[in-house]
Structures are given as C-alpha cells and as structure tokens.
Structures
1.
Amino acid sequence: MIDVYFTPTPNGHKVSIMLEETGLPHRLINMDMLKGDHLTPEYRRINPNGRLPAIVDHEPINGPEADSEPLPVFESGAILLYLAEKSGQLLPDDPRRRSQAQQWLMWQMASFGPMQGQAHHFIRYAPEGQTYPVERYRNETIRLLNVLNGRLSETDYLAEEYSVADIATWPWARAVRAIGLTLEDYPAVQRWFDEIAQRPAVISGTDVKNAANLSSARPVLSQEQWSNLFGKNMLNAPSR
Ligand SMILES: N[C@@H](CCC(=O)N[C@@H](CS)C(=O)NCC(=O)O)C(=O)O
C-alpha cells in the first residue's frame, strides 16, 4: 500500500494520475495547506522540504539491500520515476525515448512548473501592482509554452510515447488558464492536452473531489492561512 500525502494542485495531480494509470494500490491522505498540515514535524520526517506531494511506500521495491522499512519519497518528479520503476510502466524501455522522457520530466520540474508557479504567486496572491515580476514570470511561461508547442508539433507525446513526462507536464498545461493564458494559442499543445484529458486515469486522477482551484479569481486568505503558505509559519516550522 502506498500512502499519498496529497493536495489537489498540479503537483499533486501528477501523482494521483500516475497511480490511476499504473493501478498501484494506494490511499490519498488529504493535506490542508491553508491549515499548515505540511508544516508539522511528522510530515517533515516524510518530506524534509515541507511541500506536497510525498508518498510513503509500505512495500518498497526490493533491491540487494532491501529491508521492510516503509520508504518515503518526496519531489513529484522523483515520485513519478519511483512509481514507473515499481510498476514497470510509463518510462520507455527504448534508451532514446527513455532519455527523452527524463529530459522533458526535468524540464517540467526545473522550468515549466516553477516559472509558472511564480506567475501564479505574483498574479493571484502577492500584493497587487507589481508589474515587473508579473511580466517576468508570465513571459517565461509563454516562452515555455512555445517550447512545448514546438516539441509537440514534432511528436505525439513528449518522449514519442505516453510517459511520465506527459503526466508531469499535463496538469501544469491545465493550470495556465488561472494566469489568463489559453492553450488555444498553442495548437499542438491543445491537441496533446485534449487527447490526454480523455484518458480514464486522467479523468479519475483529477476528479471533481480532487479539483484544483483553476479560477483566475484572487483567493482571499486569512493572516494565518497566508502565513502557512508564504510567511512566518512556513519559515519557522521545526524540521524535527
Ligand atoms: N518541486 C516540488 C514542489 C512542491 C510544491 O511546491 N508543492 C506546493 C503545492 S503544489 C506546496 O507544497 N506548497 C506549500 C507551500 O508553499 O508552503 C515537487 O514537485 O514536489
């Protein structure tokens, strides 16, 4: 059984989609970031970075030094690779495609997610009127959408076949609407997005119960909630 410390955001949906695709037995543990569930010492023993998602595999992959200790895994990209190895699915066997899947997964983790994440922060959460960071991260997201569109104009999926790279990138392509962008401007991305959206595992992995807040309205947070996400509570969380 795999415990998934989950919140319905693009990073959380990567893992819920992957688990639906692979059929690995799991249970979702809903974490309320506004209440600071991710800041507790117990959770930071699972994810020292204090972010979501993370998993704990109670029957970890056996290796030469296998033991029966549950294995915590943090960072959504590392979780996808772990689940791909465990299930033997969604990481291509062919070395060229395998490398492509790893490259595009790293691209999502290092660029498409973080840059867009900053755009979400400055457009939806930060005090209004900060034009420089809004333009900087929105433009960077547009640049990355053009990169994605270029790749998907050449090939059906990021690594030629459907893989962890698509699973990592799709929820972030879905999120661009919350910062006022539309996939209609990126026809190859739109074609790829619509096709993946029809997969049963993607539908169940992002079902209504787990819906991300993708409206472009600015969320209203109490001081405590703000602090749990961006302020002092987050900084002062004890690590042990
Ligand atoms: N690189 C990390 C990013 C994780 C991340 O930033 N998660 C967000 C939710 S999508 C979070 O935990 N936010 C809580 C906070 O910022 O305090 C991953 O891919 O797992």
Note: The domain at 95-205 is CATH 1.20.1050.10 (Glutathione S-transferase Yfyf (Class Pi); Chain A, domain 2).
2.
Amino acid sequence: MGFADPRGVPLTARDSGSVAAFEEALGQILAFAGDPVGALDRLIEGDPSCVQAHLAKAAIYAWSLHPSFVGRAREALAAAEAAGPALDHERRQAAAVDAWLGGRYDEACREFDAILADEPRHLAALFFAHQADFFAGRTEALELRPRRMLEALPEDLPGRGFVLGMWAFGLEETARFGEAEEAGRAAVAAAPRDVWAIHAVGHVLEETGRSEEGILWYGEREEDWAGNSYFAVHNAWHLALYHLDREEEGAVLAIYDRFLAPGRRSILLNLCDAAALLWRLHLAGLPAGARWRTLADAFAAKYRPGCHVFDDVHAMLAFVGADRSAEAARLMADLAGIAEGGDERARQLRRAGLPICRAIAAFGQGDWRSAVDLLSGLGEDRRLMTGSHAQRDILDLTLIEAAIRARETSLARELLERRLERRPESARIRRDLSRLAA
Ligand SMILES: [Fe+2]
C-alpha cells in the first residue's frame, strides 16, 4: 500500500506505524547513533513488506567496508526483493547496493543520481550516496548532493540539519573551509549530537592547523560525540591528530587506548583509524609498543584483501608497522592479482592501492628513495585511495618523512613549507624543518 515519509517520499509499507518506525531508524542512521540495524530488524519483524527497511539494512552493511558483512548485505537485498513489488526508487537502491558490492562504484553512484533526481528529498538515499561518494573518491559530489537537497527541502521538514552537516563536510573536502565551518557549526547548534557535523568542523580545524581549537571543540562536547555513537572511534581519531600535531604523545596514546584499540566489536573501519594513528606515531618517531602486534592480529582476523582499497592500504600499514614482512608480501601478491580485474575496485587498486602499498612496504624496509618515488608519482590518482583529505594526508606525511630520511632535502623543504602555509601554528612542521637545517 502507498505511504510517504514526512518529506513526501513514497514508501512501500503495511501501515503508517511502519513509516514512523522507519523514520526513527533513519534518525539513528543519520546520527550514527544507537543500533539502527536492531531498529530495522524490529521493524522488518513486524512488517516484512517494508522494502525501505531491508534496503537501509543492506546499505549499512555494504558501506561498512567490513568483509564479513558483505554476505549480510546480500541477504538483506534478497529479503528486499522477496518483500514483493517495489517502487522505482526502491528498485534503484537495490541496484545501487548490488553494484557497490560488485565493485561497480560508478554504477552505484549513477543509481543514486537517478533516485535523487526523481526524489530530491530522499534522505536515506542521500545519506548512503554520501558514503558511496566518500568511498569512491568523488569529492565534488560530497558537496553537490547535500547542497541540492538543501535547495529541495523546506526548513520546517525534519532531517534538514543532518543535510546541512553533510554539506559542511562536502564544503570542507572541496577546501571551502570558511563556509564549511559556518555550516557545520550551524548544524551542531541545531542538533548537538549530529556527530557528522561535529566531524566536519573537526576536519576544518585539522586542515587549517588549529589544533588548540580542535582540542577545545571536541573537549567541550565529548558527551555528544563519544556517547552512544558508533562514529566515536573516528571522532576520537581526529582529536588524537590535534594532540599529535602538538607533539603530545601521552595524550595521543591515551586516546588510542581508550577509543581506538581493537576490541571484539571493532569493525574494519575502526581498525583502519587505529592503523592510521599508529603509523603517524611511527612517522613521528614515537614508539607504540605492543599496540602494533595487537592491531596486526585484529587485521589478520577481520580483514580480507580486495573488499575495498581503503581497507587494503590500512592493512598494509598494520602489517608493515608490526614488522610482519611475510604477511605484507602475501598481501601485496593478493592485491596484485585482484588489480588485474576489470571493475572499479581493480582500477582503484592499480592506480592508487598498489603504488601506495608498495611505498609503505618500501618505507618499512628502509628504502626511503623508493617510497619517495612511488608516493610522489601518484599525482591526482591519490584521490582513488578514497576517504577524506585528512585520511589521505598519511601519503604526504609518509612522503615527507621518506624524503627527509633519503636526504632529498629540497623536496622535503618544499613540502613542509607548503604545509606550513596552511598550518602556521604546527609544532610538528617546525620541528621537521629544523631537522633539515641540522
Ligand atoms: Fe574524518
């Protein structure tokens, strides 16, 4: 029977109770809060015909980039199909998730384009399209899609604040820092627990080197981002970056141990944040002790090659960081095989994943010159590592450290001075520049 959500998007459901239950689950999805899969499961149990609930569940699993969730995503897709006749946008969402799981990222993003053209207020589609754009390296779309929805969504309709938070992040990723900060702060003022908007402002403060403000920003609202949010690990990672920039090693390790250290419930993206932080400590010459071993064990248990390039790069960091050269070599061989495929996943690997993983391995072997050559040869393809600017910054940080160690002084100086222009307060950059002068 035909129903519509509060923004007028039609939904297949049995009754208005299902529509209300989906709206509640969607609220958790948008806020990265609570247990949206649990909420969707309860909805589906009462109303298996609610196609949108099956699809949201499939999408959550698909964009977690967690290998053992791929099967669950496919099961949810099959359940959506079995639920019966679906609306056009529901069929297209199923096609988008299926394309993503098959490594056809452009196709997935095109399906979302079509959905949002027909249903410009489709908040669930926007949320998952935003995640798809993020992990497909489509930076411009991160800004464009939320902006279009803001134009289509009247101020009095629910969910607009979350769209503002997504737009803030897109503005930040396209280096429009002033507008990003304004939009992000407005979104947080409207919904203090909008952790994606908190994160967008956090990115601005990171990109502009305002570490002290960043520590304050996160410190003042710790309950909002750290409590009952499955995005807390990533926000904690951002907080640690400010401390790292200020060379506050004790604070970095305390944050790692509290939020990022692998646990039973860690998903692979959490492990990626952990690897990225330990690698940055490693580059700064700060020992992380047994943490590397624990992290490499967690990767060995949960990671499988070729699910997504973002995972692959971080798995390599973990194995090299833990000095596990046999596992690193095996991973490299597996990735080289996967890169011969014909899908987007293979293309990302060929153009970004493989050279980056080779550079990490070279750095681990003390072959600084090879690391410099591989990383400086990436050019615009670095974007295909996907993730955010801040996450890809690990490439520049590794390049700078490799250049310093390879005594490629003029390259290191050029990179550091360019970096200092955007981050004039950085203690870390000044220390590295003084190493060059020594
Ligand atoms: Fe981030």
Note: The pocket of fe (ii) ion is lined by residues 199, 203, 234, 238, 388, 390 (CB under 6 Å).
